[in-house]
């Protein structure tokens, strides 16, 4: 079948601007985790649709604002996460849970800074909602809520993310490619034998058992007999894990968040975010599964297994980075929108959802 996204859409800065407005600006975007926002005044910062966003815990309630001070426009939060009042580092303006500046040093020195003016200086507020341990922000006040956005995928994502235990690795890669190239690469196994012959191929994940849930999709795959035997031997270690799946599972939360697990023993979450038309931030988090009732022996074995999972994932991602950057170099001279096989049906579904959001003609590829 023909692809739906023309080559120019993978390198044209004007397309990225359109994506910020019509795609990322109109959906729910992953920004972080609830465990980083567990306490009063905990905060995280993130980029959404080209805008800096801060999410903060105000006495147990999450609020999301534009991460820009109303005074002289400094970023309010310059780090990824932390704890403290929502205070500008430049001149000390402090904001409350409604985004209103309630602490203004030397306020009498400001001419005409009435209560009405102060209210007008409130930070731009955005919607923030949670599924399991995942935090999402929407810049559009008119779109349906997060539960409706996730649809059939809600329950699975809630259960999986609530099964996240210890964070055992965080790995951020700068990829010289368009964000869609990185996403599409995660959605098909057609390339595995050629790009990952000594890494992901050894897992033996295969098949085309795809589920399409609105704009989201899931791949459930069997694994090799060797891996299955290994997992059977490890069942006594992981028997109390909260999320159990037979084989390998890969979930896409449209457009650029994926969660993968093998047997529910650990979880790899990847967030892919554009930093330019041909520049992408690829951030991976690897979590151990929660294991109620651990003992020292089980913990030691699990630690060794988790270490091997981290090494495996990092090797796979470096291989993906290299090929995605090769695709980016080639797509600048490409024509049309390519061809897709039945192993790439999730790519086709992603492209269909993308085209719909951007109101592209579904016959654009030729």
Written description of the protein model:
With 366 residues, the chain is an alpha+beta fold. It has 2 domains: 28-142, Rieske Iron-sulfur Protein; 164-357, Naphthalene 1,2-dioxygenase Alpha Subunit, Chain A, domain 1, CATH 3.90.380. It contains 10 helices and 17 strands. Mean pLDDT is 93; it is low at 362-366.
Query: CATH topology of the largest domain, which one?
Result: Naphthalene 1,2-dioxygenase Alpha Subunit, Chain A, domain 1
Assign the CATH class of the largest domain: Alpha Beta
Count of structural domains: 2
Proper CATH architecture of the largest domain: Alpha-Beta Complex
Which sequence of strands runs across the widest sheet? 1-10-9-4-3-2-5
The number of helical runs is 10
> CATH-wise, what's the superfamily of the largest domain?
Naphthalene 1,2-dioxygenase Alpha Subunit, Chain A, domain 1
Q: For the residues shown, what is the average pLDDT?
A: 93
Globular, elongated, flat, extended or rod-shaped: what is the shape?
globular
Query: Level of helix content?
Result: 25-40%
SS strand fraction: 25-35%
Q: How many strands, which pairing sense, and closed or not: the largest β-sheet?
A: 7 strands, antiparallel
Low-confidence stretches: 362-366
């Amino acid at each position: 079948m023909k692809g739906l996204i023309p080559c120019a859409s993978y390198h044209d800065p004007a397309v990225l601007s359109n994506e910020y407005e019509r795609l990322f600006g109109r959906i729910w975007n992953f920004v972080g985790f609830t465990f980083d926002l567990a306490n009063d005044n905990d905060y995280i910062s993130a980029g959404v649709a080209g805008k800096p966003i801060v999410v903060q815990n105000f006495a147990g309630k999450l609020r999301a604002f534009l991460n820009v001070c109303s005074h002289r426009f400094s970023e309010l939060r310059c780090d990824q996460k932390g704890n403290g009042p929502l205070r500008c580092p430049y001149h000390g303006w402090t904001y409350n849970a409604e985004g209103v500046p309630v602490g203004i040093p030397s306020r009498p020195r400001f001419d005409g800074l009435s209560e009405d003016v102060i209210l007008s200086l409130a930070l731009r507020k955005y919607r923030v909602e949670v599924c399991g341990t995942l935090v999402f922000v929407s810049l559009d006040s008119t779109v349906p809520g997060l539960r409706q956005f996730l649809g059939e995928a809600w329950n699975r994502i809630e259960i999986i993310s609530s099964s996240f235990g210890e964070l055992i690795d965080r790995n951020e890669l700068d990829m010289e490619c368009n964000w869609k190239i990185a996403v599409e690469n995660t959605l098909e196994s057609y390339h595995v034998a050629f790009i990952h012959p000594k890494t992901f191929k050894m897992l033996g994940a295969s098949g085309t058992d795809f589920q399409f849930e609105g704009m989201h999709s899931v791949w459930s795959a069997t694994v090799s007999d060797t891996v299955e035997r290994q997992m059977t031997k490890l069942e006594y270690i992981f028997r109390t894990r909260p999320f159990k799946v037979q084989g390998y599972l890969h979930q896409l939360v449209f457009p650029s968040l994926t969660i993968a697990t093998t047997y529910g023993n650990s979880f790899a979450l990847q967030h892919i975010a554009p930093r330019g038309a041909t520049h992408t931030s690829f951030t991976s988090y690897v979590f151990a599964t929660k294991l109620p009732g651990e003992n020292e022996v089980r913990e030691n074995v699990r630690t060794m297994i988790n270490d091997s999972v981290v090494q495996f994932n990092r090797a796979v991602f470096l291989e993906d980075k290299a090929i995605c950057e090769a695709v980016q170099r080639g797509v600048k001279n490409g024509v049309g929108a390519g061809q897709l096989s039945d192993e790439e049906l999730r790519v086709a579904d992603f492209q269909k959802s993308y085209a719909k959001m951007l109101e592209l003609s579904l016959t654009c590829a030729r």
